Write a sequence for this structure.
């Protein structure tokens, strides 16, 4: 971005914003309570909108702001539609990030002092090892630093992160206590949002965790209810887990890997057959297994070998049963948290080996028809998936057949890795699955079809796998005994179960993709004791699906994401042992995690202002005198469940009735707005928990969810590390609140990523400033604006265009499409005014100008409320614009609007034709001069199409009606038109004409097939002839019918597409003198032409002398004595002495032979000499 030259316009907007915000604060304009009258309470004309409360470990940034701006624009609009609107705003502190950051600061101070003296970069990696708690490997001397440790080695220290926020060393120390974060960041968030002009009822704001006694009580009540309703269970469950943090790592606790879950594999045990190789000889008598993780246990019947990567590091470790497993260290780490080892999280390493150490070893593998198979080399095995040991089923796996063929045909490869011929050559693919179209050896067949030459043909192999795997799973039929004739998808689980019962396989889990916790720890899948929400319960899932069916999602993609999530969603761990939050009421060693205490808190918003006393942590006296300990389960039940009787409590009945009335009025949530990334977790849990808490009251279920994409900044991802990042407070300082809001509205509305463009925000500042200045100018000059009937062509067009924009903008606001609302309600609205100003030669009408200003202020108010509040006051309106009503649109004359567009298109076309006319004739360079600028033009309009076009259009119209609004293929049309004898000489032109009509039909609808225009184009042009004449800087334009033109024009001219002929009329040069002193208007010479009148001469004069702005103020005069008059010196103050005004009825005549001009008026003829006088009043 280029540096700004000045900030005067920005400062102007910021001053307005500060004044307006103070006014709103004093008037408490956004504070709203449920109505107390019976009529208003039952006829609920309300709008309750929410945004997922942001996490309080830093300042709010532009990404948060983009998402919450959708709520802000919606509540502004709905309020103007006369609804009771509530937009409350909470602040989330539950979870581990704050606690993790605080603990990290403590640790850094312990290690490096206060303030810390951090080591140089080369020492940092070693020092970071002290901070990173890794999984324990018994053979510590040979332990290798994990990926997580490597990542944390290059990460910033927490102290540095705090300094980057602008905090001093003495302030940072306080952040070593988690509670300080809760005192520091939430008030800053509120302050920043107030500076944005957020229409929130701040009395209802709160922070979460047990620091807030009322919210803590509310969450405890929710969980007691869920447990009683059997939605919460306890047991061992596979979950993504951070060894370093010592607890499950839910989505909100992750640095990377949000949405990633555990992936289940079948762990195949392949026993190494004695005698062991030299490297393993010391383990004689022990059962050693190569363990391979597979997603396809049903294919184990077709094993011909197993694959090992020669240059990969493996470990041999002892399992709980005493058997020894060989795998990568990464997978062993996962297994150690799943009950594979004696001690949870501890991998007893017996030996470190390389893959080449076990190549060629003989194996006894389950299910295969070969008694012994061998470990062979594969160079493409990856370390980040599975165990590093891969089963080989060349009949059904393209990778396996390609690698097996490589080693079979390349003796040098076998020799390099010490593989004997007997380990490879006797092994052929085994038919195990019949796939329609691919036979019983699908992988070899597809590899042959795609001409795959080796295991290095990665792209072709990927294509082969896509073909074989999907079709094999859904259509494959088993061929092996015991499962013959059964579908592959039906036998997967039974085969897995059979192998497990025989001790030949086990269940093994690992994350689908890498997951890093916020403490930079690479997560594993662990089998944990935990409390979990049973989202997989069929009845509950069915109820949640019922909520989704009635839910407005605004786009199909969001609905599909919800459907997919509800289909796969199973148990979700709701408890953890580390972090901040509310304790489980029945098992207080556990905390409720952050995605689980945030599912129905919208209900708490409805009563928070009556409980908390206006402070975020709920620790001030309650406005109703209620103490947190009085909020028993029965009290909460009474507030939120309308059929529950009054509880036994010492809280006065009227107070509890007031709390219940607030909830009953505001609920359900009308719209929840969020990023699309929350659909697979928070937003789905939101549906589940509402139906669990109010199973028989669908009136409390969510009504709509609006998901949007992420926000790019200047077309790039926002990132602190690259500097492409803006906090909310920075954006306001840089662009003003309204300038930022305008750019946010323009950034985008769909689930695709939006784009905040700084140049747009800068342009927005200029647009808004210019708008206010124009309003001020109109107010000052209102007495100079036209009055009387507002019924000219351009008046009527402007009225219709304003009404049309109001209707369109309202539709966009209803659909929450704010980019489109800004387009129709500001950019196009302003363009309509600019067009009106340009076309209304007679001047803009005062009433319409002020109607426009009022409408524009109202349409823009939801997006830029500060400036609109200021404009509202400039108009002398009483009360705040926040309380104003949305404008009511009058009738829209679409035909009139289209006729105006026709006028603009025609003017544009005429300018292009004039430009082309002025080009030099084509020929040799330098031979031709450009023609003189024409003075006159005749525009020809056609009432009907030329016969050949008429025939083509008639045929298209007939097809359109008979085919329900569709046209046949061009070949069909061409044949039918070719059969018409009257079109034979025009066939080269007919099909391009048809193509143009088809294109216009798509853009403008069936009216393009009409044989006549819906308006009188000649009348439209004549009504705007002065504008056209001035626009083209011509002296005169005539409008004639094409029937009066020559044959070529007749053939080419059609309705809506006028043609023109330019010409130059001769004239006699006359001097026009302005005798008025010191006005910047000077003498000039212009041509007088035959038939000119006063107005045509003044128009011609204004084109030459741009200082003349208002033609109505120009007075044209002639000398009484045309010969001596010009020679007399004018007398100051007596400029009209010796001169006669030229009347409207005067007509000028020229004599070209004598180069003279005379004038006739009411039958009198007079010589004017060579000079005229003009005065500007």
């Amino acid at each position: 971005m280029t540096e700004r030259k000045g900030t005067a316009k920005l400062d102007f907007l910021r001053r307005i914003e500060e004044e307006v915000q103070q006014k709103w604060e004093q008037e408490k304009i956004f504070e709203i309570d449920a109505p107390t009258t019976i009529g208003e309470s039952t006829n609920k004309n309300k709008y309750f909108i929410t945004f997922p409360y942001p996490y309080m470990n830093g300042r709010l940034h532009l990404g948060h702001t983009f998402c919450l701006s959708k709520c802000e624009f919606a509540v502004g609009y709905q309020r103007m539609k006369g609804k009771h609107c509530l937009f409350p705003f909470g602040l989330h502190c539950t979870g581990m990030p704050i606690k993790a950051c605080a603990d990290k600061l403590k640790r850094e101070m312990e290690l490096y002092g206060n303030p810390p003296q951090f080591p140089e970069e080369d020492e940092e990696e070693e020092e970071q090892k002290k901070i990173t708690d890794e999984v324990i490997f018994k053979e510590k001397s040979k332990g290798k630093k994990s990926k997580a440790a490597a990542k944390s080695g290059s990460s910033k220290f927490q102290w540095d992160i705090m300094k980057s926020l602008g905090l001093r060393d003495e302030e940072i120390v306080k952040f070593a206590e988690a509670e300080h974060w809760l005192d520091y960041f939430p008030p800053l968030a509120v302050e920043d949002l107030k500076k944005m002009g957020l229409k929130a009822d701040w009395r209802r704001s709160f922070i979460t965790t047990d620091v807030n006694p009322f919210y803590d009580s509310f969450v405890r009540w929710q969980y007691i209810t869920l447990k009683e309703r059997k939605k919460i269970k306890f047991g061992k469950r596979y979950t993504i887990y951070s060894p370093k943090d010592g607890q499950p790592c839910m989505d909100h606790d992750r640095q990377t890997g949000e949405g990633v879950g555990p992936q289940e594999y079948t762990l195949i045990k392949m026993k190494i057959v004695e005698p062991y190789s030299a490297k393993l000889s010391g383990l004689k008598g022990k059962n050693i297994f190569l363990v391979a993780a597979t997603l396809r246990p049903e294919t184990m019947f077709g094993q011909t070998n197993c694959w090992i990567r020669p240059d990969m590091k493996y470990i041999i470790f002892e399992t709980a049963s005493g058997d020894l497993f060989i795998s990568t260290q990464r997978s062993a780490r996962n297994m150690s948290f799943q009950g594979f080892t004696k001690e949870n999280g501890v991998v007893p390493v017996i030996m470190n080996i390389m893959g080449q150490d076990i190549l060629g070893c003989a194996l006894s593998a389950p299910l295969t028809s070969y008694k012994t198979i061998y470990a062979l080399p594969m160079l493409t095995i990856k370390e980040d998936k599975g165990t590093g040991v891969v089963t080989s089923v060349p009949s059904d796996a393209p990778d396996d057949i390609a690698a097996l063929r490589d080693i079979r045909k390349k003796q040098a490869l076998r020799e390099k890795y010490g593989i004997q011929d007997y380990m490879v050559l006797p092994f052929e693919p085994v038919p195990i699955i019949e796939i329609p179209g691919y036979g019983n050896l699908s992988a070899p067949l597809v590899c042959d079809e795609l001409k795959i030459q080796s295991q290095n043909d990665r792209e072709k192999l990927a294509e082969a796998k896509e073909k074989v795997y999907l079709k094999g799973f859904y259509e494959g039929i088993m061929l092996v005994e015991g499962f013959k004739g059964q579908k592959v998808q039906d036998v997967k689980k039974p085969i897995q179960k059979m192998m497990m019962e025989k001790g030949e396989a086990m269940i093994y889990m690992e994350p689908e993709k890498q997951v890093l916790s916020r403490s930079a720890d690479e997560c594993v899948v662990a089998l944990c004791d935990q409390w979990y929400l049973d989202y997989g319960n069929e009845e509950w899932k069915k109820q949640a699906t019922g909520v989704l069916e009635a839910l407005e999602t605004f786009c199909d993609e969001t609905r599909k994401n919800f459907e997919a999530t509800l289909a796969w969603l199973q148990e979700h761990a709701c408890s953890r042992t580390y972090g901040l939050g509310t304790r489980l009421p029945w098992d207080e060693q556990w905390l409720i995690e952050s995605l689980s205490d945030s599912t129905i808190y919208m209900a708490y918003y409805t009563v928070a202002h009556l409980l908390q006393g206006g402070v975020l942590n709920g620790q001030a006296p309650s406005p109703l005198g209620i103490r947190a300990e009085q909020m028993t389960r029965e009290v909460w039940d009474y507030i939120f469940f309308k059929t529950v009787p009054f509880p036994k409590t010492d809280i006065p009945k009227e107070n509890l009735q007031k709390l219940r009335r607030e909830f009953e009025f505001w609920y359900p949530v009308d719209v929840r707005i969020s990023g699309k990334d929350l659909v697979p977790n928070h937003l789905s849990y939101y549906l589940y928990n509402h139906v669990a808490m109010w199973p028989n009251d669908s009136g409390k279920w969510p009504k709509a969810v609006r998901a949007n994409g992420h926000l790019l900044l200047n077309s790039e991802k926002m990132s602190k590390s690259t500097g492409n990042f803006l906090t909310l407070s920075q954006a306001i300082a840089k662009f003003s609140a309204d300038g930022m809001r305008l750019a946010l509205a323009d950034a985008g509305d769909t689930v695709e990523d939006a784009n905040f463009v700084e140049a747009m925000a800068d342009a927005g500042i200029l647009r808004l400033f210019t708008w206010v200045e124009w309003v001020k100018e109109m107010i000052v000059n209102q007495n100079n604006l036209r009055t009387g009937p507002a019924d000219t062509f351009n008046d009527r067009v402007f009225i219709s265009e304003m009404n049309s924009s109001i209707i369109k903008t309202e539709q966009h606001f209803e659909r929450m499409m704010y980019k489109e609302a800004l387009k129709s309600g500001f950019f196009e609205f302003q363009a309509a005014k600019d067009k009106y100003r340009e076309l209304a030669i007679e001047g803009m009408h005062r009433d319409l100008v002020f109607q426009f200003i009022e409408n524009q202020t109202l349409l823009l108010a939801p997006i830029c409320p500060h400036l609109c509040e200021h404009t509202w006051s400039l108009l002398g309106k009483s009360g705040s614009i926040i309380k104003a009503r949305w404008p009511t649109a009058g009738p829209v004359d679409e035909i009139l609007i289209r006729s105006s567009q026709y006028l603009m298109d025609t003017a544009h076309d005429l300018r292009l034709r004039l430009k082309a006319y002025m080009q030099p004739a084509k020929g040799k360079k330098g031979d031709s001069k450009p023609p003189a600028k024409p003075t006159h033009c005749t525009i020809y309009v056609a009432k009907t199409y030329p016969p050949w076009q008429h025939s083509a259009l008639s045929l298209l119209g007939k097809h359109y009606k008979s085919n329900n609004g569709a046209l046949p293929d061009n070949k069909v049309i061409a044949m039918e038109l070719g059969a018409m004898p009257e079109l034979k000489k025009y066939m080269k032109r007919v099909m391009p004409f048809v193509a143009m009509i088809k294109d216009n039909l798509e853009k403008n609808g069936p009216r393009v097939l009409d044989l006549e225009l819906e308006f009188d184009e000649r009348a439209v042009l004549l009504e705007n002839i002065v504008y056209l004449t001035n626009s083209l800087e011509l002296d005169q334009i005539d409008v004639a019918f094409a029937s009066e033109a020559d044959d070529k024009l007749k053939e080419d001219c059609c309705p809506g597409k006028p043609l023109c002929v330019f010409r130059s009329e001769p004239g006699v040069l006359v001097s026009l003198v302005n005798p008025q002193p010191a006005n910047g208007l000077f003498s000039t010479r212009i041509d007088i032409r035959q038939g000119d009148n006063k107005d045509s001469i003044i128009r011609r004069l204004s084109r030459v002398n741009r200082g003349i702005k208002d033609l109505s103020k120009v007075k044209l005069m002639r000398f009484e004595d045309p010969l001596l008059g010009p020679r007399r010196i004018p007398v100051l103050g007596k400029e009209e002495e010796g001169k006669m005004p030229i009347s409207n009825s005067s007509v000028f005549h020229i004599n070209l032979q004598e180069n003279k001009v005379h004038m006739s008026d009411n039958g009198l003829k007079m010589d004017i000499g060579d000079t005229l006088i003009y005065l500007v009043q």
